Each structure stands twice: as C-alpha cells, then as structure tokens.
C-alpha cells in the first residue's frame, strides 16, 4: 500500500521507513489492538510530528519503532532504519542501535535521569556505551566532548556538568536529557511530549532548542505531541493518529491552513485562538474510542458530524488528496467546501460584557469576591520562608469571569486555595459576597456553612478529584445532604445537575473509573454547582484535558457563567484559554500582581514586560519560532 | 464495575494456587475451632497411661504425648485459643488504628502530635521483655498477655494508617469535599476508610500472624495459658524434652503454628496487592 501513496521525499532513501506496523496487547483474556497498519517515513533532516489525543497510541508507536515494547505487546509489519531492517533484530543488536542510530527523549526528564549521576556523568555514560569510544577516546578528550554537548543544548556554564538532577530545574533537566540522547550522534531522535511537563516559557525554549539542534545536525526528528500548535511550530510534516489509525498525513503548512479530515479539522477548531474570542467554541463531542471498538468503519465516525452509512460500511484507506498529503475520509470530496465554511465562518464574539471599572464606581454592587493586600507565607522543609502570595488585591463582580495567569510557582493556586479556606492567609483580608472569609478556622460553624455556599473550587487533575469508590449520584447527593437537603429534592436535583453539565441520567450509577477525563471534570463541576455557589474557582480546570474535550468544558463553563450568573475565577497558564473565557485578567509573578485589566488590553496591548514574555512564549508558526529561538539563545548567553 | 472482591474474582483460576491452599488451611483450622467437640477423636484432657508417647497410629493420628493424651485431639482443642487471641489483638489493632491513625493523619496539628507521642512511647518500650515481666509479675495469664501484646501491637498500625491518611488528605477529592462542607468525621469514615482499607486488611493479617507467634512464644515460656490447657505453644514446650524420641508431639503444634501464620500472611498480601493493583491501573 505504501507505494501507492507518494509520501516520501522524491527518490532519496528515507532515514526511517515503517510500513504496515501493527501492535497488539496480548492480554490474558483477549487481545487488544493498540494501533494498526501504520505507514510512516522520515527523511534525513526532516521533522515529522505525530499528533493525537491521549490514548490514541502515540507513545506505543514510538516505543514500537525503538523496539522498546513491553514483552506482552506483539508487533508485526516492517521497520527499516537507514536501509537496515530492524523489525525482528535481536534485542542485543537493537540495544547497540539505540543511542548510535536512534534515541528517545521522554516527557518527564526526571524519569530519564539517574539521580546519583551528575549531568556530565550522564553524557559520559552514554558515550561509553559505545565500544569504539571506550577504546579510542582519552579522558581529556571525553571531557571536552561533554562540554561540547552541553553547549550544544545551550548550557555554557561548565559547572553544570557537576550538578545532580535534583539540583536542576525542569528545563535544565530536559536539556541534560537531550545532551545525553545526542551524545553518540544519532541519526534519528524521537521526542515523546518533550515539553509537556514544563511551563510555557521553558516549553518554548526547549522546542526552539530541539528544532535548532535538529537543523544544525540535519538529523531526523519525530516529535510526539498532543498539542497541534507545538507540532505546527516545529514539524515539516504531521501524522494525525486517532484510536490507533492514521487519519491524515500532510505538510504542516497545509494541515494548519486547510486540514483535509474532519478530525484534524475539529482538533484545529477546538484549539482556542489567542488573538480573538470565538463566539461558539467548537469541540468534538465524546472522547477517543479504542481501536477494536471502531473496527471495520471509519475510526472517527462515532464523533463525526458528517458521518453517513458509507462511513460505517468499511475501514477507509488513506488516499492521496494533494502533494504528499493523504487523508482517510471517505466523503472528503463532498464535504470539503463545508469544512472551509466551518473554518472561516466563525464569529468573533463581542468584547466582555461586564466591566468592573465602571461597576466599582457604583457602590451599591457588592463584589462576589474582594481580596485586599493578601499575603501568604509558607515555611518550607529547610525552615525558610517562602512568600507564595506577597501582596495581592483583587475583585470580582457578580457574573464576571476573571482570569488569574502566571507561570507555575507564581502563587495563583495558593491564592485560590485561600479563598475557599484550604489555606489560611498570613495577612490581608478576603470577603465573599460581603461575608468575612479570611480565616475559615476562626469563625462559627454557621458562618462557615454560609461561606461554602459562596465559593467552590474545581481542580486540575480529573483523575484524583473524585472519590474512586463513590458513584456519580452518591457524590452529588452527599454534597446536598450535608447542606441539609431532603432526599426527594436531592434525587430530582441530581438529574437537573447532570443535565446542566451535559451528562446523561444513566451516568448516575457510574464510578469514576468508568468515566473519561472530561466526564470526570463535568462531575466535579456538578459537585461545585450542587451547593449553588456565587463563585467557582477553576484551578487549571482544563489544563489536563485533550483539546477537543477542553473546548467542551470551556463551553460548559461559559454557559454556566451566562445562564446561572455565576462568577468564575479562572486560574490558568494558558493565555488562549484566557482569551476565550475571561472578561478581565490579572497577571501574577512571584506572588505579586504585575498587570491587570480587560482581557483585550492585557493580551493585545500588554504593558508589563513579564506579560509580554508570557505572550511571546505561546507556540506559533515555524518562522516566528525560528526568530524567537535566536533571540532566546542570545538572551541566554547574555545572562551567563 | 463495582470494586467488590466477589465481582472481581469472578473465576477461581484468577486466584494464585498458594492463596487457595492458604484459604483451605484457614478454613480447616476455623472449622476445627468451631466444631472441636464433635470432631475430636479423643478427649484432649484424658490421660491414657497405657498409651504414652505413641507414634502415629490409625486411632492416634498424630500419636500421643508423655501423659498419653491424643496429640491430634489436643491440636483441635487448641485451635480455638490459637485463633481467638490473635484475632482479638489484630482486630483491636484495626479498630484503634482506624480511629486514631486516621484522626492523627487527617487532623494533623496538636492532636496528631499527642497521638504520635503516645506511639513513640510504646515504640520505646522493650516489647517482649516487658510482656514477660508484666505477665509473670501480675500472674495475669492469657488475658493479661493479650492486653499487653495488644497495646504493643497497635503502634505499628497507627503509624501506617496515619501515613496513608496523610496522603489521602492531600488528594483533590478530599479537599473538594472539605470545600463543599462535608464534616470531618464523615470524610474520615465515609471516604478515607473505604479508600485505605487494603492497608487495614494487610495490617490485620500481619498483626494476626505476629500475635499468633508471640502468644505461642509466651505459652512456650510457661506464661499466658494455664498449665494443662491444650495450647499450641504449651504443647510445643511440653513436647520439647522428648523432641528426639517423640517428635510428633512437639512438631505437630509447631508446624500448625507456622502453617497458620504463613497462610494468614499470604492471604493478607494477596488482598492488598489485589486492591493496590486495582487503584494503580488508572
Ligand atoms: N503498558 C501498557 N499495557 C497495556 N496497555 C497499554 C500500556 N500502555 C498503553 N496502553 C494502551 O495503549 C493505548 C495507547 O496508549 P499510548 O500511551 O500509546 O497513548 P498516547 O497517544 O501516547 O496517549 P497520551 O497522550 O496520553 O500519552 C491506550 O489504549 C493505552 O491504554
Ligand atoms: S469517513 Fe465519514 S465518518 Fe469518517 S471522517 Fe469522513 S465523513 Fe466523517
Ligand atoms: Mg504518550
């Protein structure tokens, strides 16, 4: 099949060629297909991206290529690296190949680094794995090579070589991991979500670095990511993987401008733009199925707006739809024009509808939240004081959505936790809807109960926000019960709440383990709504979700704000999300608010240098990135 | 979909063989404890001076001891005491640690400090020595031994339960419950207990096995149970002088103690693994 598709660069032999690769999980009871019949190629000096939502099989695909599958997974198909077939090469030989020819970079640099080895030792260790190197290179020379590798990844301070992983920041660790991976000059680098665990600015630096190294070495690079923006900014071509099948492959530029598969199209639309607010956020309903559940039909059919009977009758094959561009959508020709209309016809929403600056002029309106000179100091394990929140004042009007943005560690979460009484502020004051809420411990039980009805919180991690042993209905019912509701009204309100957050009634009896991340987050929102609060604090509530699901949850929150008049405090690091949902924004850095104002002003005309930096680290198109990369590297050098 | 043991272990073949054997052993010993009077071939106290130190025969399955008492019948008669003592110790450990451990871990602060100082105090005591002294000085016998061992045993449980409760406390779902206004006690017993009970079960098993061995050891030293009562530890020490001539009398209680202790531990481990794996599978 591969020769029908003209994916490869002209005549030259690709660096990596994968054809018909299938991986199955050999379970005790039944076999499960993880992905099937994947064709993929990487030319020398080319960067490809593999994108797809969580569970689509991206990581397994890279593991299969590296021949690193766990023993209970079986693969078939053909993998050729640099002209050599490695599909069934003995593990000993594969081991030599890894590092010499191809190498892998993981999401979490911590798991890749050995805590007892210093940065320099990691690189040396990788070098020594090669026999030739062990024999021929002297100690002096190897030291020089280590420093060379370090400077290649932007570390010019020789002292770093002697530091241990725990003494380095996440970004630094990822640099060391990269230097280690590059030690033996591999021809192919596979990076699985290399920047996902890092905060925005560091993420941008690491991506720029990867691209830079890839270009100067003319190395093949496979970047695995769930984030389309990241893929567009770094990759030449992109493979879209969904439920274990490749749905579309094409050059980044084309995919970004005109995707030719409804799934890619949906993903792209779900990605909120940072420069304007979209009136109706597009999302893809539902979540990713498993390969076996969509066998024999278009994998995307259950979630596709354009699905008809043809789509269910057979498994679609990839077909050429442009130069080096393939798509598996059967109905592409019929729906192409609709896709374009969909993309271009999105309405930009009006500016925010509440404006506190005019409102606070009216003394009659009590703000839902008023924070004055709040300060919170922690004592850390070394008995040092950490000023998480230094001096923050903030107000939220009824029905308003306010965003609190900043990098990790800037004190956003601490502030949110103070508001709901999970932390007690060191000084300053908090008022919720006119009620004193500074210290939940020092007030009567009745006042505390009253405060619970004012502010609620939704956390980031959907997997640990629900009691794993409680059904959805029990969870909601308990909240109402402790707030004094009778059994009958509880029962009918559970249905109403589920409806509000877009879950069917049948979900009452479900346990969290049988819910997807997005569904769990809906339940968490329903739980917050159950007490009928005036304000909901969303602490990175959509950050752990896939884009398509993120858009669903954002729309839900917008709806709640509009229809129920509930105020939102949206804590996030994602500026595009801020643009979509918030009326006003506060930017925090090191426990201080450095800038605040209407979202439009803050994001379009940032005054503060830090806000500008945050904005500039949002991944954008490739050319912009290259520019940024240069300035970042220059700046790094200057800092030293 | 629910997490009950019954629905998860739908097929017996999912259970490892060692666990099946261990369960069988425990079931047999429990049955013996309940039905002792009916299944025991001889009166365990009856001395038959015409049949002393017998090797196993068709009527005396495990032979007889110095005084001509049937070893098998005495083993059966001793099973009740062998189970009840360790059970009481393990059970009280479970209840006390579930209350104090969770309270300490969840509340933190001065209550936690107070409880943990108490625990530290018990840890500092020389356990076995203290038991021997207290039991022999007070002539308290079996019940005193249970009491002292029970108090000594509980500290380990409290520490473990406190640790896991502390972890639970930091989880978003617990914090969300606090924010929503669920009272403390309810969070502790309705949310934390169900989520940490594999640990409680594992503790119970280790406690049981440990108490069985400790109680047998005390009886062996002549403390705890009254002389003459059919107690496994005492049978062990009674049989010891003639270990090389009449080894059946000494070895059978010894082997039974080991079998029971190992079986309980095996099952405890398995139940713990089973649930932990379940929660890791996310
Ligand atoms: N060790 C494993 N054993 C069994 N199944 C696994 C294992 N690891 C992954 N899977 C399954 O393989 C499928 C693909 O998983 P994979 O980790 O490749 O997804 P992914 O696209 O990398 O997702 P993410 O974006 O969350 O990293 C999923 O259904 C997953 O449950
Ligand atoms: S084949 Fe059908 S279901 Fe699949 S993407 Fe195309 S239109 Fe949608
Ligand atoms: Mg992955």
UniProtKB/TrEMBL annotation, chain A:
Keywords: ATP-binding, Nucleotide-binding, Transport
Gene3D superfamilies: P-loop containing nucleotide triphosphate hydrolases
Family annotation (InterPro entries): AAA+_ATPase (IPR003593), ABC_transp_ATP-bind (IPR050319), ABC_transporter-like_ATP-bd (IPR003439), ABC_transporter-like_CS (IPR017871), Oligopep_ABC_C (IPR013563), P-loop_NTPase (IPR027417)
Keyword Ligase: no
Sequence ranges assigned to domain ABC transporter in this UniProt record: 16-268, 369-615
Annotated GO MF terms: ATP binding; ATP hydrolysis activity
Pfam family membership, one: oligo_HPY
Entry-linked PROSITE patterns: ABC_TRANSPORTER_1, ABC_TRANSPORTER_2
GO biological process, one term: transmembrane transport
Family, similarity comment: Belongs to the ABC transporter superfamily.
The name this protein goes by in its record: Unannotated protein
TrEMBL record, chain B:
Location of the ABC transmembrane type-1 domain: 83-268
Keywords: Cell membrane, Membrane, Transmembrane, Transmembrane helix, Transport
Keyword Cell wall biogenesis/degradation found: no
Annotated TM spans: 20-39, 83-106, 118-136, 196-224, 244-272
Cell compartment(s), UniProt: Cell membrane
Pfam families: BPD_transp_1
Provenance organism: freshwater metagenome
A biological process from GO: transmembrane transport
Membrane topology according to the record: Multi-pass membrane protein
InterPro entries per the UniProt record, alphabetical: BP-dependent_transpt_permease, MetI-like, MetI-like_sf
CDD domains registered for this protein in UniProt: TM_PBP2 (cd06261)
Main location: membrane
Record-level GO cellular component terms: plasma membrane
Protein name, entry field: Unannotated protein
């Amino acid at each position: 099949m591969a020769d029908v598709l003209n994916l490869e660069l002209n005549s030259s032999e690709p660096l990596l060629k994968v054809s018909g690769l299938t991986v199955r999980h050999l379970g005790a009871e039944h076999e499960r297909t993880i992905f099937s019949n994947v064709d993929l190629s990487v030319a020398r000096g080319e960067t490809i991206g593999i994108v797809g939502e969580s569970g689509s099989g991206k990581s397994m695909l890279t593991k299969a290529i590296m021949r690193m599958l766990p023993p209970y997974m079986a693969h078939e198909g053909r993998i050729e690296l640099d002209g050599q077939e490695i599909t069934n090469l003995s593990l000993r030989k594969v081991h030599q190949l890894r590092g010499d020819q191809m190498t892998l970079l993981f999401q979490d640099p911590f798991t890749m680094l050995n805590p007892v080895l210093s940065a320099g030792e990691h690189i040396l260790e990788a070098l020594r794995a090669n026999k030739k190197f062990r024999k021929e290179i002297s100690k002096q020379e190897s030291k020089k090579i280590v420093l060379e590798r370090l400077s290649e990844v932007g570390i010019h301070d020789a002292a770093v070589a002697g530091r241990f992983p725990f003494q380095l920041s996440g970004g630094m660790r990822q640099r060391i991991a990269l230097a280690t991976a590059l030690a033996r000059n591999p021809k192919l680098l596979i990076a699985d979500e290399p920047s996902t665990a890092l905060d925005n600015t560091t993420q941008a630096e690491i991506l720029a670095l990867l691209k830079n190294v890839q270009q100067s070495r003319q190395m093949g690079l496979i970047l695995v990511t769930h984030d389309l923006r990241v893929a567009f900014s770094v990759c030449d071509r992109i493979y879209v993987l969904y439920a274990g099948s490749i749905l579309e492959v094409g050059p980044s530029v084309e995919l970004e401008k005109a995707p030719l598969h409804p799934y890619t199209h949906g993903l792209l639309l779900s990605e909120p733009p940072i420069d304007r607010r979209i009136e109706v956020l597009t999302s893809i309903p539902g979540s990713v199925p498993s390969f076996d559940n969509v066998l024999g039909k278009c994998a995307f059919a259950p979630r596709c707006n354009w699905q008809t009977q043809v789509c269910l009758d057979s498994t679609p094959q990839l077909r050429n739809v442009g130069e080096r561009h393939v798509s598996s959508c059967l109905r592409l020709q019929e729906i192409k024009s609709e896709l374009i209309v969909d993309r271009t016809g999105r309405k930009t929403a009006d500016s925010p509808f509440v404006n506190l600056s005019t409102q606070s002029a009216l003394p009659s309106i009590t703000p839902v939240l008023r924070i004055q000179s709040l300060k919170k100091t922690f004592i850390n394990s070394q008995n040092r004081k950490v000023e998480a929140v230094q001096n923050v004042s903030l107000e939220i009007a009824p029905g308003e959505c306010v965003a609190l943005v900043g990098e990790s560690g800037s004190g956003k979460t601490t502030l949110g936790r103070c508001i709901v009484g999970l932390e007690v502020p060191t000084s300053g004051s908090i008022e919720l809807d006119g009620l004193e809420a500074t210290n939940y411990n020092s007030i009567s039980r009745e006042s505390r109960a009253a405060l619970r009805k004012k502010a609620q919180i939704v956390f980031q991690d959907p997997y640990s926000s629900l009691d794993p042993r409680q059904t959805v209905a029990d969870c909601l019912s308990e909240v109402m019960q402790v707030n004094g509701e009778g059994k009958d009204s509880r029962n009918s309100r559970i249905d109403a709440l589920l409806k509000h957050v877009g879950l069917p009634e049948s979900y009452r009896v479900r346990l969290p383990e049988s819910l997807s991340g997005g569904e769990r987050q809906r339940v968490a929102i329903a739980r917050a709504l159950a007490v009928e609060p005036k304000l909901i604090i969303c602490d990175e509530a959509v950050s752990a979700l896939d884009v398509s699901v993120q858009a669903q949850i954002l729309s839900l929150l917008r709806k709640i704000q509009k229809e129920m008049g509930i105020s939102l405090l949206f804590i996030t690091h994602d500026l595009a999300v801020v643009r979509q949902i918030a009326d006003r924004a506060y930017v925090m850095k090191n426990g201080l608010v450095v800038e605040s104002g209407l979202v439009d002003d803050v994001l379009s005309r940032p005054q503060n240098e830090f806000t500008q930096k945050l904005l500039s680290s949002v991944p954008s198109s490739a050319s912009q990135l290259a520019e940024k990369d240069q300035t970042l590297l220059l700046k790094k050098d200057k800092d030293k | 979909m629910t997490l009950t043991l019954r629905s998860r272990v739908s097929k017996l073949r999912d259970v490892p063989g060692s666990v099946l054997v261990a369960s069988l052993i425990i079931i047999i010993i429990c049955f013996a404890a309940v039905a002792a009077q009916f299944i025991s071939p001889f009166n365990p106290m009856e001395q038959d001076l015409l049949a002393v130190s017998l090797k196993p025969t068709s009527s005396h399955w495990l032979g007889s001891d110095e005084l001509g008492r049937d070893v098998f019948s005495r083993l059966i008669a001793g099973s009740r005491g062998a189970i009840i003592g360790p059970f009481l110790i393990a059970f009280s450990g479970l209840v006390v640690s579930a209350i104090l451990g969770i309270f300490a871990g969840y509340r933190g602060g001065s209550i936690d400090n107070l409880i943990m100082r108490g625990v530290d105090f018990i840890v500092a005591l020389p356990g076995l020595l203290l038991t021997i002294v207290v039991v022999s000085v007070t002539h308290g016998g079996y019940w005193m031994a249970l009491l002292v061992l029970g108090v000594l045993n509980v500290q380990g449980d409290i520490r473990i339960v406190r640790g896991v409760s502390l972890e639970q406390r930091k989880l978003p779902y617990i914090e969300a419950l606090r924010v929503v206004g669920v009272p403390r006690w309810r969070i502790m017993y309705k949310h934390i207990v169900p989520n940490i009970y594999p640990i409680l079960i594992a503790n119970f098993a280790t406690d049981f096995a440990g108490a069985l061995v400790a109680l047998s050891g005390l009886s062996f030293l002549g403390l705890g149970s009254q002389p003459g009562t059919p107690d496994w530890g005492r049978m062990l020490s009674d049989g010891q002088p003639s270990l090389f001539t009449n080894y059946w009398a000494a070895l059978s209680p010894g082997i039974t103690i080991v079998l029971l202790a190992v079986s309980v531990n095996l099952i405890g481990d398995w139940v713990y693994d089973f649930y932990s794996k379940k929660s890791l599978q996310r």
